[in-house]
Amino acid sequence: MKSKTAAFVALVALTGSAFAQDAIEPETLTVKETIDEGPNLFVLSQEWKGPSSINVLGAEDFAMKGNMGPGTTAQMVLSADGKTMYTTSVYFERYTYGSITNVFHTWDVDTLKIKGEFEFGDKMAHVESQPALLALSSDEAYALAQNATPATSVSVIDIAAGSALAEIPTPGCWGIFPSTSGMKFTTICGDGTFQTYSYAADGTFGDPGKSEKIFDVDDDALFTNGVRVGDTLVYVSYNGNLYVVDDSGEVPVLSETIALTEGVLGKWAPSGSELIAYNAPTNTAFVLMHSGSYDGSHKNGAEQIWAVDMDSKTVVGRAAAHHENGLIVTQTEEPMLYGANEEGEVYLYSVEMGDEVFLEVAEEFNIAGWPTVMELDR
Amino acid sequence: MTRLIDKLLKTLDKSVETGARTAARNLGRRSFMAKAGASVLGAAVATPILPFDRRANASELPEDECSYWRHCALDGNLCSTSGGSLTQCPPGSSASSVSWVGTCSNPDDGKDYLVAYNDCCGKPPVDSAAFCYTSEGERPGYRMGLYNDINWCMANTDKGYHCTVSVVVGLAE
């Protein structure tokens, strides 16, 4: 077959262009310069033995627009204007052994091209992608990256300077939740407290502000990936409680807890990784849930998505889910909710708001990978 | 959680914190930790800390390998289906110097055992290996010693994830 193909190609070349031009207008090979217009959904398919891939899908029709290619065990975070994607990745010099480097990439979303890259050490955590493990400061001048050796620390990355500004030890703590203003972040700690760290542009940082004990790690552990709700951070616990933490001061304070499963039959409990999403215009949170919970079921794929009205602090909707482990929602007046599961399926749910909230699958797409974390540009 | 695990984790956290503070003073913040904390848990799980009960091995492997009692908190590929065994890394790989810990109940004697889940490192995963995804007692990275979503080859020279073993290291209280 190969020799026949080669002979045909050679024949076309020898007989000259007149033969072909008479038949058809020759096509021209080009590279598409920009992605198609319209809102986007970014789905990171993480790899542990090669490059990861950020799939860019049309947010309404799931049309494939292209991808960006960070390295192994990548993390991603999108700028507020949706124009720039930032990633951190591990690069193995010999794929499975030998030296590694961590690389910070800046990507132009319109062209899907690399705008800049630099190395920032070798301590970033090799871990499932999660929104809490790479974050931007409120002014987007700094990126905050989770390290683990397994001792934990946070790298403060000066994006414009192209280098790590500081490495802040955060022993026994995990996750990065930037403040809404200033140069601060809050993290969850293994003794049930939260700690807030401040840093300065010259790379200095002080002792953290440590909260009182906020949760019990043994009896009602918190999932790492919380969401910002106004001036507070909201986390989901294994038993189905929302913990509302005020991070506006120097020391985090527990504002309140909201029980989601109290009095509900069926041993329902939250599960997943990026398991809560929050739509600010409607003040509604969406949480992945499963029934028949047991010790160790906290990563099970979701059976339902529960809608929580954060005004009345009550569950106002329960809709069928599709085994999702991750959720994200637009910040539009009419929310559009996206879920992803470990089989590679991504779902778009239309949301009907009201006294009771209803969800209906509007689109689905299989990215044929491991969709770990998603971003939206609206 | 058992007091033993508490002790292990507190030792890890305390060492990391002490190491961090000392090194921050001596070396500057960017090189604060070295591997002080990393070696603590590694050493702890490499040496059985309680009298080892050989009955821990007694239960037969079930057809569904992931449901074998000692794999109760294992997220990864079984080394026993990657060229190694329950307690052996496959040839040519290296055992992780640190690990996470599970507390699993052996149905044969009804006792709870501490199981160290070491990753084996420096080779690609075996695509045909059995993948297990159990998380009994698992906690996020703020309890690092119980966390199974991270690559535990992270402290090795060769950091590529290969597979995971389940090594019984003691009786849980």
Short description:
The complex is a heterodimer of chains A (378) and B (173). Chain A has 378 residues and is mainly beta. Chain A has helices at 2-15, 17-23; strands at residues 40-45, 53-58, 64-68, 72-78, 84-94, 97-108, 113-119, 134-136, 142-148, 152-158, 163-169, 173-178, 184-189, 194-198, 209-210, 227-229, 232-236, 241-246, 253-259, 269-270, 276-279, 284-290, 304-309, 314-320, 324-329, 336-341, 345-352, 358-366, 371-376.
The most extensive interface, with participating residues per chain, is: A-B, 50 and 51 residues
CATH topology category name of chain B: Electron Transport Ethylamine Dehydrogenase
Average pLDDT figure of chain B: 76
Q: Sketch the topology of chain B as an H/E string, one letter per element.
A: HHEEEEE
The CATH superfamily of the domain at 264-373 in chain A is known as: YVTN repeat-like/Quinoprotein amine dehydrogenase
Rounded to the nearest angstrom, the distance between the terminal CA atoms of chain A is 50 Å
Largest sheet entry of chain A: 5 strands, antiparallel
* Structural Rg of chain B: 16 Å
Low-confidence regions of chain A: 1-16
Q: Considering DSSP H and I runs of 4 or more, what fraction of the residues of chain A is helical?
A: under 10%
From the coordinates shown, what is the CATH architecture of chain B?
Sandwich
Q: Runs of chain B with pLDDT <50, length 5+?
A: 1-55
Helical stretch tally of chain B: 2
The description of the largest β-sheet of chain B is: 3 strands, antiparallel
Count of DSSP-assigned helices of chain A? 2
Euclidean distance between termini CA atoms of chain B: 9 Å
CATH topology of the domain at 264-373 in chain A: Methylamine Dehydrogenase, Chain H
Question: Which structural category do the helix and sheet elements of chain A fall into?
Answer: mainly beta
In total, the number of strands of chain B is: 5
Q: What general form of chain B does the structure show?
A: globular
Question: How many structural domains in the coordinates of chain B?
Answer: 1
